[in-house]
Sequence to fold (60 residues):
Amino acid sequence: MGELTDRVKSAGNKAAGATKEAIGKATDNERLEAEGKLQKAKGTAQDVAGSVKGALGDKI
Fold:
């Protein structure tokens, strides 16, 4: 179940991050754009964690 949880959180963070980044670019808000990039990176890390958990059978 850890794999699925990580992948769902990953999708949410990637979507929210992309939205923040786009709004930041559109409004010339560098801080918001940076937050969006950071949140997308967090989502990618969660996706990797989910993949590892899936490969190891949720033993971590």
